[in-house]
Amino acid sequence: MDVDAVLAELEGRQPERMVPDVSRISALAELMDHPELAYPTVHVTGTNGKTTTALLVARLACEHGLVAGAFISPHLVSVTERLSVCGEPIADDDLAEEYERLLPYLRTVDARGGERVTYFEALTALAYLWFADRPVALGVFEVGMGGTWDATNLVAGDVAVLCPIALDHPELGSTVAEVATEKAGIVKPGKAAVVREQPPEALAVIEDRCREYEADLLLEGRDWTVDVRRPGIGGQVVTVRGRHAAYEDLLLPLFGEHAARNAGASVVALEALLGRALSEPAVRRALEGAAVPGRLEVARRRPLVVLDGAHNPAAAMALAGTLPEAFAWDRLLLVLGVSANKDVPGVVGPLAALADRAFVAPHSRAARTAPPEVVARACEEAGLTADSFGSVGEAVDAALAEAGQGDLLLVTGSLYTVADARTHLLD
Fold first, then answer.
1. For residue 266, is pLDDT > 90?
2. What does 17-54 look like in DSSP terms, one character per residue?
3. β-strand pairing of 332-336 with 304-307
4. Which residues, 6+ apart, have CB-to-CB distance to 208 below 8 Å?
5. Rounded to two decimals, what is the model's pTM?
6. What is the pLDDT of residues 34-47, one digit of tens each?
7. Most exposed among 39, 84, 113, 334, judged by the fewest C-beta atoms under 10 Å?
8. Nearest Cα residue to 416 out of 394, 391, 387
9. Do 387 and 270 sit in the same domain of this protein?
C-alpha cells in the first residue's frame, strides 16, 4: 500500500457525520489491545488555541528528553502534518506502512454494520497505533471537536488542558455552558486539569467536573499566570509563573496575548505531568523554536501577507486585537472565506472594523464553505466594501495586485481558507 492508496482510502471515509458516538473507535481500540493506553497522555480541548497548545506541550516534553508524539487537526497541506514525533511529521512511507497495518481492524469494524469508521476516527486510531509502535514516552492529543464524544477521548488523559471555551460548532450546544459540558468531558478521575481563563458559565461547569472527579484544577490567574509580556524580535517576550517555578524572559516567536497564554498553559501542563519544576533552559529552547503554521503566520513581506485560521467570533476578536500590536500597515486588505456552519457576521465584524477592503471567496471544501455572496453581504453590512471571487487563489492574486508595499494582506476566516492560500502562494 502506498501513500496515494492510503489517502484514497481515507477520503472514502468522508464525509464525517457529527453524531455523538465512540462505539467505532472503542471497537478499534479493543481489537488493537488499547495502544492509546501504552503511554502517558496530555489531552487538549477548547474552542481556540488547541493546536498551538498541543504542539508547545510536545516541544517542551521533547526538550526535556521525552520522545513526544503530537496528534493535531485539521492539516493545512498534507495529512502527515497531523501526526508528528518531536516536531517531525510522519513520513509518507511510515504512514503507508502503519495504515496498512491498521486497515484489517478498520474493515473488521466496518463489517459490523451501521456507519463505517470515519476519516477522523481512522486517523485517531492511526495515531494511537503509531505512537505505541515508535514508542513514545508521551502522547499529546488535540480534540477534533468537543470532548466527551470525541474519538481522542479514549486516552488516559493524565493532564487535560482546557483552552478558552466559546460558541463555535452548533453541534456542541447553543450555550457556552452546554459547550463547556461537552469539552469538560476530557477531565479524568484523579488526574490534573490545566484551565485557561474561561467565561463564568464555562468555568462553573469545569469546576463541577473537577470536583466530581476529584481532579486537580490548575486555574489561570489563580494557580499560574503569564504576568509579563512585551514585544520581542519576531514575536514577544513572556514570563510564566507556573505551579512549581517562574520562567522569566522567554522569547516566543508567536504573536498575541492568546499565544502567550497558550504557552503558559503548555508549561504548566508539563509541570503537572512531571510533578515538578521544569528546566528553564529546556523551556527557553522549546519556546524559541515554536512555529504554528496558519496562526498569525507571516507568509510574505512587502506587501506583508499574514495567514490566520480565525473561524469563529472569539478567534476573530482575538485576531483583531493582536494585529495592531504585532504589525503596522497603510491599508489592510482582507481575503476572507468562512465555513457555512459558522457565525459569518460574528467572524466578519471584528475584522471589518480594521480593514479597508475585502476579497471574498469560497474555500476548497465545497460542502462546507459559505457562499461568497453570504460573506460579502456580511462585509457590506459591517461597512466594508467586498468583491467576490471564484477561489481563494483568485482572491489572493487580486489583493496582491492591488496592495502597495506598505499594505497588509490578511487571509482568514477558516483554516481551509488559509490552507488554500498557502498552497497557492507556495506553488
1. yes
2. P-----HHHHHHHHHTT-GGGSS-EEEEESSSSHHHHH
3. unpaired
4. none
5. 0.94
6. 999 999 999 999 99
7. 113
8. 391
9. no
Report pLDDT digits (tens) over 320-359.
999 999 999 999 999 999 999 889 999 999 999 999 999 9
From 288, 320, 336, give the residue that closes a domain: 288
> Looking at 265, 288, 311, which one is the last position of a domain?
288
Compute and round to an integer the Cα radius of gyration of the chain. Answer: 21
Is residue 390 within a helix (H) or strand (E), and if so which, with residue range?
Answer: none
The size of the chain, in residues, is 427
Identify whether residues 79 and 111 lie together within a single domain: yes
In angstroms, the CA 203 to CA 200 distance is: 5
Amino acid present at 405: Q
Q: CATH number, domain at 270?
A: 3.40.1190.10
E strands in 72-109: 83-85, 88-89
Q: Which residues 6+ apart lie within 8 Å of 303 measured at CB?
A: 400, 403, 404, 405, 406, 407, 408, 409
206 membership: H or E segment, kind and range: helix 200-212
In a shared domain, residues 246 and 316: no
What domain count does the chain have? 2
